[in-house]
Structure formats: C-alpha cells, structure tokens
UniProtKB/TrEMBL annotation:
Protein name, UniProt field: Transcriptional regulator
Domain of life: Bacteria
Positions spanned in the full protein: 113 to 402 of 402
Lineage: Bacteria, Pseudomonadati, Pseudomonadota, Gammaproteobacteria, Alteromonadales
Phosphoprotein keyword on record: yes
Keywords: Phosphoprotein
Keyword Protease: no
Residue ranges annotated for the EAL domain, each copy included: 24-276
C-alpha cells in the first residue's frame, strides 16, 4: 500500500516525530483502506427527554475495528483530521446513518438524528449542499437532523466556518455545540455561532455528585443556555445519582450509559420497540409504584 503524507507536528522532538510519523502513517493508511472498503460502521446512542422518559433522538457514532479490536474514535478522528480523511469519513457516516434513520423513524416519528462534525471540516464549502441533498434523497427534512460540532482547533471569528454554520441553519438543520466547557468548545463559539443546542461535557456531569464546584458550573451553564433559548443535553449520565443531579440542575435532555451505550442498527430497532419496558428509569419507577 502507498503510504499517506505525514502531518507536521510542532511540539515533539525530531526523533520522536519521525517514529510517531511512521506509526501514524501506517495507521492512517489502514484507516484510509477501511474507508475505501466500507468497513467503518455507525453505532447510535439514544438521547432521552428526561421529563417524559422518551427517546427523542439518536446520535451517530463512528466505529472502526482493526483486527477485531475497536479503535477509540478519538484516536481515528484525530488521524482523519491530520491526514485529510475527515471528509471521506463524514460522507460515509452521513450515508449510513441517514439510511438507517429513514427506517428508524417509521417506529417513532418524533425521532431526531445527530451527526458529529469536526470543526476542521467547516471550511468545506460544499458541505451544506452535500448534506441537504443526502437528507432529501432519503425523504427526510433537515429539521430532523442536528449537527454536533466539536471544536478541536480554535475557530477564528468571522472565519468561513461561521458562514457555513449560518448556511446550515438557513437550510433548517439544528446545530449543537458539543463537549461544552472542555477543549475549545467555549463561550466564544456560543457568542458567534447560530447554535440551537448545547451539550454539557461529561466531565462536569460525572463529578457533580462529588464536588459542589461541578454542580455550580453545570447549574450556570444550564441557566446560560436557557437564557439563550438553547436545548440543553447532559452527556455521560452513568448512574441514577448523575441523573438526579442533572434533573435538579434543570437539564431537559440527557445521554449516557445509564440509559444506553452506543448500539448497532439492529439493536436500535429492538431498543425503540421495547423502550418503555427497558428504560432503566421506567423499570425503577414501576418497581417503586407496584
Ligand atoms: P461525542 O460526540 O462527545 O460523543 C460522546 C462520547 O461519549 C461517545 O464516545 C460515547 O460513546 C461516549 N459516552 C456516551 N455516554 C457515556 C457515558 O455514560 N460514560 C462515558 N464514559 N462515555 C459515554 P465515542 O463513541 O468514543 O466518541 C468519541 C468522540 O469521537 C465523540 O465525542 C466525537 O467527538 C467523535 N466522533 C465519533 N464519531 C464521529 C464521527 O462520525 N464524526 C466525527 N467528526 N467525530 C466523531
Ligand atoms: Mg457528539
Ligand atoms: Mg460530546
Ligand atoms: Mg466528545
């Protein structure tokens, strides 16, 4: 196989860079081949309305198995970003998740689909038209689709990315600021981007039960988001205690292992059909009231 061009790292020594590059080149080449052969899979994680206990959406998450082992997305997303493969990845995730989603909504008409985009793609001028066309081909409406943006590089104010975000909004797509509070996903993004949803990073959610500081931070983010009329999603709810804390703070939507891990398309169908009985929160509720 032909090896791909290495990215230029700035913060490592030359020797380290050379061996790092060798390794990441080989991995990037494997990833590129996996893309070409359609091996990248999509899983879905339910998003729950915490007031009604219903599934309101599904988040598409890319999965790559190398020699039978799942490679962590954080790893291959960074690789895809560095090696200019992120566009190809997005194309495949969009294609696969929409085709599954078109079937999922026949079980639940209220369902939405969330797709993750990397901020490095937001200079891709043809991205809005591409997504709009795909959504139309599957007989869906952009209103059903939320684009989750994680900032992995600092976005410049007035850069082309804001124009692309605005075009997405005009088409009717929902826009979510992902991992809010961590990395570069910041107040600056909120100030300048036309977002409709805010997802609070799981680090804050998971430390709410142990530190008052996290409670105060989450409470403040929720208040801020409410004033800006954004939907609020708490990510990383793992325990009943986490759930109680986020409800107390006023989060209306949540995601996390407590409700469901990301699951493959076959499991989504089962999950949608049996949600009322299988939702851990309903189960506990039924036990307490019967
Ligand atoms: P994200 O968009 O913030 O997605 C949430 C991540 O948290 C997912 O990790 C999910 O599996 C994990 N998660 C959900 N609930 C819990 C929980 O209760 N506890 C814990 N510890 N983790 C939980 P995953 O699938 O490993 O993805 C990591 C990141 O990779 C995503 O973070 C997203 O930024 C990126 N990513 C994944 N798929 C794609 C994709 O198709 N395109 C792009 N651009 N990025 C993607
Ligand atoms: Mg996300
Ligand atoms: Mg997130
Ligand atoms: Mg994340």
């Amino acid at each position: 196989d032909e090896l791909l061009e290495p990215p230029q790292f700035t913060s490592v020594s030359r020797a380290e860079q050379k061996s790092d590059n060798n390794l990441s080149c080989r991995l990037a080449t494997k990833f590129s081949n996996a893309l070409k052969s359609g091996e990248i899979d999509v899983y879905f994680q339910p998003k729950i309305n915490l007031e009604t206990n219903e599934i309101t959406g599904l988040e598409a998450l890319a999965r790559w198995q190398l020699a039978g082992v799942f490679v962590p997305p954080e790893h291959f997303i960074a690789l895809a970003e560095n090696y200019n493969l992120i566009g190809q990845l997005t194309n495949q995730i969009v294609e696969k998740s929409l085709s599954h989603f078109a079937r999922f909504i026949t079980f639940n008409r209220q369902l939405g689909l969330s797709i993750n985009l990397s901020s490095v793609e937001l200079c891709q001028q043809d991205l809005p038209d591409f997504l709009f066309e795909k959504v139309t081909v599957y007989g869906l409406s952009p209103h059903m689709i939320t684009l989750e943006i994680t900032e992995t590089v600092l976005l410049e104010k007035n850069s082309v990315s804001l124009e692309i975000l605005a075009r997405f909004r005009l088409m009717g797509f929902q826009l979510s600021i992902d991992d809010f509070g961590s990395g570069y996903s910041s107040v600056n993004m909120l100030q300048n981007g036309p977002f409709t949803e805010l997802k609070i990073d799981k680090v804050f959610i998971q430390s709410m039960h142990s530190t008052d500081k996290s409670k105060i931070i989450v409470q403040s983010i929720v208040d801020l988001a409410k004033k800006l009329e954004l939907k609020i999603v708490a990510e990383g709810i793992e325990t009943r205690q986490d759930l109680q804390e986020v409800i107390k703070a006023g989060c209306k939507y949540g995601q996390g292992y407590f409700f469901s891990k990301p699951i493959n398309a076959t499991h989504v169908t089962t999950c949608l059909l049996n949600w009322e009985d299988n939702n851990p929160n309903n189960r506990a509720h039924k036990k307490a009231t019967s």
